[in-house]
Amino acid sequence: MIKDYSKNYNDLTKLMGELGAKIPSTMKGFNELHKASIAKGALTTKTKELIALGIAIAVRCDGCIAFHVHDALKSGASSQDIMETIGVAVMMGGGPAVVYGCEAMEALNQFIVLEN
């Protein structure tokens, strides 16, 4: 079944806003952690988003895949960068990562269409 990753991204963004209204301290802390973790340092934001994508594939998180494909593209990652990240995730995660790597590739394809 093909998922709509743009819809997934938008739905999760809305739900995370609602969650923030119900548990503001926790979500504020999570948002600050996210900002600090992807901020440019020794590694670029793009590299950090690709690492997050590889982990999302390996741990089989649909929503994480949607977010990190989207955010990797926004941080300047190319399609080839994302495809190579999928390859590393497959190496680390085996067969299940192949399935979620396909999900990440589909998310990439969908987000690229939206950008054009």
Task: Give average pLDDT, whole number.
Answer: 95
Q: What count of structural domains?
A: 1
Query: What Rg do the Cα atoms give?
Result: 14 Å
Which architecture would the CATH scheme give at its second level?
Up-down Bundle
Please provide the ordered H/E string of secondary-structure elements. HHHHH
Structural class: mainly alpha
Explain what you see.
With 116 residues, this protein is an all-alpha fold. It has one domain (5-115): Up-down Bundle (AhpD-like), CATH 1.20.1290. Helices cover 84% and strands 0% of the residues. The chain is built from five helices and no strands. The mean pLDDT is 95.
Keywords:
116 residues, mainly alpha, 84% helix, globular
Write the layout of secondary structure elements.
Blueprint: H1 5-22, H2 24-38, H3 45-59, H4 62-74, H5 79-115
Helix pairs in contact: 1-2, 1-4, 3-4, 3-5, 4-5
Summary of the model, kept short:
The protein has helices at 5-22, 24-38, 45-59, 62-74, 79-115. By secondary structure, it is mostly helical.
